[in-house]
Fold this protein.
Amino acid sequence: MFRSRLIPIILIENRGLYKSIKFKNHRYLGDPLNTIRLFNDKEVDELVILDIGARKSTKGIDFEYLEKLSSECFMPVCYGGGVDDIFQVEKLFKLGFEKISFNTALNEKIDLVNEVANKYGVQSVVASIDVKKNIFGKYNIYIENGTKKIKWNLEEYIKYLQDNGVGEILLTSIDQEGMMMAYDYELIKLVSGFVNIPVVANGGASNLRDCKEAIDYGASAAAASSIFSYYGKKRAVLVNYPPHNELKDLFKGAKDDEV
């Protein structure tokens, strides 16, 4: 049976919906609640909500607003942003989120990640790994919304995370994010060869063919934001998602266990 392999990502901050380019130049797009309702109408099978302001906010995670967002979602949802302790994780699961995406905590609080995996299962733990190439072509890993580079080797870091309970990787190319010039296929192929857990490619999709190619290069799923938020060369704001028969034809021949 066909399963969706195309996952919209929405970025929120201060209860607004935003789109970025290379993790910068954030453009306000509207109301996240309306976007989620439109995705419901289009029968999106999975959604990722990333709060890019939660970590730097003095108020931390906006649970009140997340409850409103979760109550509107008719699909499984992954949340990421500012998660620092098990009490926050428990609250998010009670609100209806099925997966938690960790980024900074992967580097600073690996015991928390391990605890979540042991308590709720590895399928609930997503490692959000943000990667950027340096001038020598080496991939560096960044945390804190792409502002802080860490010293880990990419292969060693990913294997370390897998050994500590991560069940899925959300792999984002900072260089490609928001550019709509295709994914970093070299990065996808590289990381997919390191692990035996699903890798969700993100950053750079310009059309559905790019998403299919990301899977051909080893990703288990393709995530995107711009192609679901914009229409045309001038990037007019228009929430969209392809019908499932179109997706079925696009991903024909992909393995059923790919998510």
